[in-house]
Specification:
single chain; 5 helices; four-stranded antiparallel sheet; alpha+beta; five-stranded antiparallel sheet
């Protein structure tokens, strides 16, 4: 029986025997422990005579009273090298890293590939023949580009560029010089300061010749997570493109006073945090945590930029007779990209997927499910928002 691993809510898991099993991230544990050690060494500045001498009881290296337990640390993605070696990407506040782990020995020391400051890694895939990792990386608020990381070089080599967002890279399973990924262009409206995105298409890049081919695109849909099977069939997930409201010039004018007040409040809040360690906002943490933009209520979740009404979607899928109803909308369709550019739907309500021989493993946001060639399905375990599914 193949071993199955995945990422759920920023943590590593293994699936099996009807239940999920959490796996350690030594990199995250060490990082958080290091923050706690620093906090302990600075404790004299926050209590007793030391605090009175410093003139504040709210000192910390980050300029706030935020606890190390509130640090933004999470596993972003993973890929398999072999049965006893996984490579996973982890965000550690303002930096990121690639680490190796033996999933069969959870307490074994981890390996280290690369660590970069002011960078994040979002998706990874591994090519065993070339011993190279493909990753979607970002060092800014918008752009993400595809990079290659050789195990022995410990450095990034960007292979795409421009005003684009490129995600979910994967190597061809029958030709290692080919890599598939999803790409979308954007531009910033200089008058309104708004960012406008197109629709994700699937590209194929020949790493040897540099030839770039658009495989499938449609202005109405986003095509993401391209993956090729051993027999050369190309799969991907198709989602209806979400278009935000454009607004109007009159509305922009009416909102100027409110935006001005918001700017003043933000300025006051900054100085409050800077000099007292307290935020004017009633929140659990005064630090800037990117997870705050992802973690909504149980009724609504942001999943890769898509706002999902969990309760409503789960109810709809249940009413439609799903054996294992999930929270992924039916408009999220897994399908095969045909040579003529058409898209053949295989399964609806898919968040992420992988292949185990002829079996399809997919996540619907609530369960991790095995789908056999005859259409029969069985749930491996409950797995909330499971992504980066890896089979070895």
């Amino acid at each position: 029986m193949s071993a199955v691993y995945y990422v759920s809510e920023g943590k590593l898991f293994a699936a099996g025997d009807g239940a999920e099993r959490p796996l350690r991230s030594e990199a995250i544990e060490k990082y958080v422990q290091n923050l706690k050690d620093i906090e302990q060494r600075q404790e004299w500045k926050t209590s007793g005579a030391g605090a009175r001498f410093m003139g504040s009881g709210q000192f910390s290296l980050t300029g706030s009273s935020r606890s190390p337990d509130d640090a933004f640390v999470q596993v972003e993605s993973l890929t398999a090298v072999g049965p006893d070696k996984l490579i996973y990407a982890a965000s550690l506040e303002g930096s990121c890293g690639l680490y190796t782990k033996n999933p069969t020995k959870d307490d074994a020391p981890e390996g280290f590939l690369i660590r970069k400051a002011q960078t994040r890694i979002f998706h990874v895939d591994y090519e065993p023949g070339e011993k190279v990792v493909a990753a979607s990386v970002s060092d800014g608020p918008r752009e993400r580009h595809i990079a290659l990381i050789k195990e022995e070089h410990s450095d990034f080599s960007l292979i795409t560029e421009g005003d684009t967002v490129e995600i979910t890279p994967s190597f061809s399973r029958h030709d290692p010089k080919l890599i598939y990924y999803s790409s979308v262009g954007y531009y910033v409206d200089p008058r309104r300061g708004r960012v406008h995105y197109g629709s994700y298409c699937v590209n194929r890049l020949n790493l040897h010749s540099g030839e770039l081919t658009e495989v499938i695109a449609d202005a109405k849909y986003d095509y993401i997570r391209p993956k090729e099977t051993a027999d050369g069939r190309l799969f991907c997930v198709r989602r209806l493109k979400v278009s935000p409201n454009e607004g109007s010039p009159l509305l922009d004018i009416l909102l100027i006073p409110f935006r001005f007040l918001k700017a003043i409040f933000g300025w006051m809040n900054f100085f409050s945090q800077r000099y007292t360690g307290d935020s004017l906002m009633k929140s659990r943490s005064s630090g800037v945590n990117p997870a705050q933009y992802q973690n909504k209520s149980e009724e609504e979740l942001f999943i890769e930029g898509n706002l999902i009404n969990v309760e409503r979607t789960l109810k709809e899928n249940t009413q439609q007779g799903e054996k294992y109803p999930g929270i992924a909308p039916k408009s999220w369709e897994l399908g095969i990209v045909r040579d003529d550019g058409s898209f053949e739907v295989v399964k609806k309500g898919v968040l992420d997927y992988a292949f185990d021989g002829e079996d399809l493993l997919y996540s619907n946001g609530k369960y991790l499910i095995r789908r056999r060639p005859d259409g029969g399905e069985e749930a491996l375990c409950e797995a909330k928002i499971a992504t980066a599914i890896t089979v070895v």
